[in-house]
Amino acid sequence: MEILILGAAGMVGRKLTERLARQGHLGGRAITRATLHDVVEPQVPENAPFATTTLTSDVSAAGEAERLLAGRPDVIFHLAAIVSGEAEADFEKGYRINLDGTRRLFDAVRGLDGYTPRLVFTSSIAVFGAPFPDAIDDAFFLTPLTSYGTQKAIGELLLADYTRRGFLDGVGIRLPTICVRPGKPNKAASGFFSGIIREPLSGQDAILPVPEDVRHTHASPRSAVGFLIHAATLDGSRLGPRRNLTMPGVSVTVAEQIDALRRIAGERVAARIRREPDETIMRIVEGWPRRFDARRARELGFQAEDSFDEIIRIHIEDDLGGTFAA
Amino acid sequence: MEILILGAAGMVGRKLTERLARQGHLGGRAITRATLHDVVEPQVPENAPFATTTLTSDVSAAGEAERLLAGRPDVIFHLAAIVSGEAEADFEKGYRINLDGTRRLFDAVRGLDGYTPRLVFTSSIAVFGAPFPDAIDDAFFLTPLTSYGTQKAIGELLLADYTRRGFLDGVGIRLPTICVRPGKPNKAASGFFSGIIREPLSGQDAILPVPEDVRHTHASPRSAVGFLIHAATLDGSRLGPRRNLTMPGVSVTVAEQIDALRRIAGERVAARIRREPDETIMRIVEGWPRRFDARRARELGFQAEDSFDEIIRIHIEDDLGGTFAA
Question: Is B265 at the interface with chain A, CB within 8 A?
Answer without folding.
Answer: no
